Amino acid sequence: MKCVILAGGFGSRISEESIHIPKPMIEIGGKPIIWHIMKWYSYFGFEEFIICGGYKCYVINEYFTNYNRHCQDLMINLAENSIEFLTESSENWKITIIDTGLETMTGGRLKKIKPLLNETFCMTYGDGLSDVNISDLVRFHINENRKATMTIVQPAGRFGSVEFEANRVTKFVEKPKGDGGWVNGGFFVLEPEALEEIKDDNTVWEQAPLNSLANSGQLSSFRHNGFWEAMDTLRDKNKLEELWRNGQAPWRKHS
Q1: What's the whole-model pTM score?
Q2: For residue 52, with 0-12 CB atoms within 10 Å meaning exposed, 13-18 middle and 19 or more buried, which class applies?
Q3: Residue 161 lies in a domain
Q4: Could you tell me if residue 157 is inside a domain?
Q5: Which end of the chain, N or C, is less packed with Cβ atoms under 10 Å?
Q6: Per-residue pLDDT tens for 132-160?
Q7: Strands, DSSP E only, in the chain?
Q8: Rounded (10°) CA dihedral 54, 229, 236, 31
Q9: 162 found inside a domain
C-alpha cells in the first residue's frame, strides 16, 4: 500500500528553520522529521512512498537522491574518483517525489498525484509524529467500508492546569487534554474515489472535501488516544528533540 506525505507547505510558523529548508526536512535527532514518519510507516511494513513537494522541493530530492551518502559510513578514494560504502542501507523504500507546486493547497497536491493512486492508500502530513498503530488503522478503514478514514486525536493543552476548591489549590495537572475536543491528526486511509471531491489546485483538503465526505456519510474517524504532536513552532520542535534525545520518543520503534 502506498503512503502519501504532504511536504510542500511554507512552514511559516517555524520560519527560524524553514527559511532554509522545507518544514519536513527540519531535523529531530539528526534526521529530517519526514524520515521519522517514513520509519514509523515502514515499521508496520508500508514502504512505498509518494512525497508531494513544493516549497524548496529540491532539498527533499537531494536528500533522498544521496540518501546513502547522508546515512552511511563511506571511504572516498580521490585518486580513483571512487566511493565505497562501508555499511548497508537499512531501508527498503521506494520513493516517488513529485513537485506539486509552490502555491498549491493540500487538496490540490493530492489531485496532482491522483494518476498514481489506483487503490487504497495512506496519507499524512510531513510535520506530524504519532505512535498510532498503522496496521490497526488500515484494518479499521477496511471494516468501515467508507471512502475515507481520518485519525482523530485530543492534543494536550499548552499549559498545565490547576484544580481548586474555594480559594485552596488541591491539585496540579500538567498539560491536560486541551478542551477535550477531537481534531484532525492526519494519518488518513483513503480510497481513490475520495479524491473526486477535490476541485482544483486551490482546494484545501481539510475544508470542502472532508466536509463533503462527512455530509455523505463517507468519512470514518479512528480515535487515537496515544502520542501525537504536530511540529508547528520552534517550541514543538524542541519538545520533540528532547523526547528523542532522552530516549522517550513514543514513535521510536527502530534503531
Answers
A1: 0.89
A2: buried
A3: no
A4: no
A5: C
A6: 999 999 999 999 999 999 999 998 776 66
A7: 2-7, 27-28, 31-32, 48-53, 74-77, 82-85, 94-99, 121-125, 128-130, 148-153, 161-165, 168-173, 183-184, 188-190, 219-223, 228-230
A8: -60
A9: no
User: Which residues form the domain of 71?
Assistant: 2-152+181-245
Written as one letter, the residue type at 238 is N
Contact 152, 222 (CB under 8 A): yes
pLDDT, tens digit, for every residue of 13-27?
A: 888 888 999 999 999
What residues contact 47, with CB distance under 8 A and at least 6 apart? Answer: 41, 91, 92, 93, 94
Residue 140, amino acid: F
- DSSP bridge pairs for 233: none
In 3D space, the residue among 210, 223, 51 whose CA is nearest the CA of residue 146 turns out to be 210
CA angle 61, 66, 71 (to 5 degrees): 120
- Selection from 10, 27, 8, 28 nearest residue 19 by Cα: 10
